[in-house]
Amino acid sequence: MFSALVILCSASLALAVLGPISTDAPAPAGGSIANNQPPLASFWAGHSPPYPTDDWWVGYGAGSGNAVSAGPFPYESNLAASSIQFGISSSRQFDGTSIKQPTQTDWSVGFSEHSGNFADHHAVQWDTQSVQVEYVTGASSMIGYMVPGSPYLTFNFASSTPLLTSGQGAITSFGGTAVTSGGAAVSSTGTRFTVVNSIGTYVIYSLSGAITLSAQATAAASTVKASKAFTGVLRVVKLNSTSHAALLDQYVATYPTSVTTDYTFAGNSADLIFTWGVVGTASNLLMLTWPHHRIKMVSPNFPATTALNYLTTKGYMYPALGNVWTLAYSLPTITWNAPRAPDSSCTSAIVQGLKYEIAKLSASAPSIPGDFYYWGGAIAAQGRLALIAEHLGQTSLISEVTGYLEASYAYWFQSSSATLPAYETSWGGIINKGGATDVNVDFGNGAYNDHHFHYGYFLTGAAIIAKYDSAWLAAHKTYVNYFLRDIANPSRSDPYFPVTRHRDWFAGHSWASGVANGAGSRDEESTGEGNNGYYGALLWANVTGNTDMYNYARLLLATEQHATQIYWHLYPEQSSTDRDQPYPEPAVRALITIGNVEDWQSGAWLFWGAEKVEIAAIQMLPVTPVNEYLYDSAWVNNVFNYAQNELTDPTIDDEWKCVIYDAYSQYNPQAAATLSTGLSDWGTGNTYTNTLYFIATRPNTGGPICSTTNANPVGTFAISTTAGQYVVSTAASENLIASGTAATATKFSFAWQPNSGTIQNTVTSQFVTADQSGIDALASARAVASTWETFTIRQKVGAATGVYSIKANANGLYVILGAGNALINGATTEAGSTGFRIQ
Ligand SMILES: *[C@@H]1O[C@H](CO)[C@@H](O)[C@H](O)[C@H]1NC(C)=O
Ligand SMILES: *[C@@H]1O[C@H](CO)[C@@H](O)[C@H](O)[C@H]1NC(C)=O
Questions:
Q1: Is 547 close to ligand 2, i.e. is its CB under 6 Å away?
Q2: Which residue stretches, if any, does this entry annotate as coiled coil (predicted)?
Q3: Which residue of 166, 326, 407, 517 lies most exposed, with the fewest beta carbons within 10 A?
Q4: What mean pLDDT is predicted for residues 360-364?
């Protein structure tokens, strides 16, 4: 009994990276193709695909292989022809929008026997965090262990003469002795040397006994060179303060060579475990932490923060001892729908929206995929209608949605389709075939940009179909799994895909950047969609009954959401000296949301938009139930207040506002519900129904969520002013003029649309249209109602009951009487509008 219990416990907690989802050769309808951004053959010599495409160090092996790469932090580095170059940015600037720490080369480390041929270095091995790079010429070699979080860079020499070259001016001091430019070399023998150039002090340690090094500053170069060939380990570290020397000296003897990233699951908790492979005493491994590590580490062994620190784009790195870090996370338990029923005050409006939006869907032809990104965003939003229908007991509507989705997905399985996935053979992955040779297709999908954004949507839509159609699931499971394997493969044993393509496990989040543009700087500017990538994986794993993958996706999502909150959400109320917040500058935190986190800068900007609502909304969308964890009250409230001027500006698109209101509902659902009744556009990635459903399902103790009436009058009516002037519009004179009597009034048919409606002339059957200028009269002049033919008609505030304001959604302005009593959409405020009776 006792021993059985022990075995059960140890089995459930055993470290074991998950096995592959599948090892089958992908056979998508687009076949196989190689992209035009191939891996650098010399760097990958001796290896075969799949290769990492979005890791911090992909610049070593993509393009020409010399791009500055996003680590190993606190350093950034690049591979030169005969040396590894690195530095810690010594310039941190805030320009009002971004904090920047431009990369720099402090030192290069190589050996004097190296040929100087760029092809004479290659990857030895890599794991999910680190890579070993070897420079070799004849019998002489040097391996660099490029391990994120190590304060020291570590170089293992074999029969080679170490050569360090200053990247920051002349060496001025070596081993405490002044070095004169153009003067004699200064030599020193020992195991610890300080060397100073214009950027400050580095310490060079030998772990392999005394070595003789000599420093010389000539006009051509400043170098530190060994007296003869050396076999052993040197470590090099930036000493930014003399007060850091004690800790660095104490722990230099143990160095990391690799990392295992593992995890354990227990119910709705998971431990993420980093175990560094070390040479030396494991408990004496000195590493550096970022804020997201410190918050989640279990039983950490932290030396004083004053003992060692480096300020980076993710805030201060502080020391931790030991070769195992355990980071504890709560896993999301929300899957398809919100964990509570919609507030009863909102249900009738949600059901009305469901029926309207699903009827429009089933009346239209299937969406023919023209790309991955926009198609996916729309299909996932439409799929949510089926899930919401289920939650509201409107089960008869579900098949209308899934039928539409299935007809659209069918194109992905037919080789005759214009847009198709293909298996990309040079790196290993599923790409948009049309993007194999064109980075302008799908935002560089063919060069491995943005797959987590794109495939999260794809997986969500497929999971929704599969939830309701097991035959479809059985028929297409293998195929849809290609997309799961592309972004969430947990195992090196899948011979076709790298492990969790976008995730930087040390940085704690995903990078969207693939192998294009020489594969330099990394960025992530759409955390909402990055998170959604792992949500899509979670749903697909759940519906296919793959519990291991469901848990792995939950861990990916929990970690990604946490990093989003730490590095993208900004909190002016935090203290600048808080150990675990990344932006010490109050002016940075006042920006409320980071748009783009890159390796060397982070700022409130996007590649494509400058509005506050855009910068914030792209960190929030798509709006799904699992974002309950992401939309923390403090941040959504900050965003709401910060973006007020745009939220109240009628020229700013509702497709952004609806997302902001959804997130804000996590803080104040009643206010969000009222604000949402003013929306007339939800974009292609959201819907009226989903917006209201999300608001209606927020945790709430404040009474009914939906109170304001959000419907236009519906029926056939005449329109008149309060002075009894009736609106007339005829085939001969289409403009709406308040010139008639009750007897001569034109009758209009008012129909419902979400939050608004259409007005159709019953005599001419033409829909009333408003133009965007606010100068021309409304006119019964359109056979089909589109966005300019919708109006928001509400009880006018402050007027007698039954007196309405009419707002044209064409320009967000209210209708007034203009010259000749023509109805014109020209008033910016409701107070300035004309009151109408509709009866
Ligand atoms: C180095 O120290 C200076 C002075 O204290 C500080 O301003 C700078 O941020 C430090 N650099 C790093 C990378 O921590
Ligand atoms: C699917 O998700 C539900 C929670 O909605 C969970 O209880 C169940 O265990 C999951 N199943 C699998 C196979 O992941």
A1: yes
A2: none
A3: 407
A4: 87
For 524-553, give the DSSP string.
E--HHHHHHHHHHHHHHHHHTT-HHHHHHH
Q: Please state the atom number of ligand 1 nearest to the C-alpha of residue 238.
A: 13
Percent of the chain whose predicted confidence (pLDDT) is above 70: 98
The token pair that represents 89 in the structure block:
């940015």
CB of 268 closer than 6 angstroms to any ligand 2 atom: no
pTM: 0.94
CA nearest ligand 2 atom 10, residue: 542
**Nearest atom in ligand 2 to 550's CA:** 14
Decide the pairing of beta strands 211-217 and 222-226.
antiparallel
Largest CA distance in the chain: 109
335 lines ligand 2 (CB under 6 A): yes
> At residue 768, what are phi and psi to the nearest 5 degrees?
-75, 130
Residue 335 CA: which ligand 2 atom is closest?
A: 5
Which domains can be identified in the chain, with CATH numbers?
Answer: 37-257 (2.70.98.30), 344-422+445-697 (1.50.10), 715-838 (2.80.10.50)
Nearest ligand, CA of residue 337? 2
The pick from 100, 240, 242 for probing ligand 1's pocket by mutation, whose C-beta has the most ligand atoms within 8 angstroms, reads 240
The residue nearest atom 9 of ligand 2, judged by CA position, is: 547
Q: Which residues contact 517 (CB under 8 A, 6 or more apart)?
A: 63, 439
Environment class of 280 (CB within 10 Å of its CB; exposed 0-12, middle 13-18, buried 19+): middle
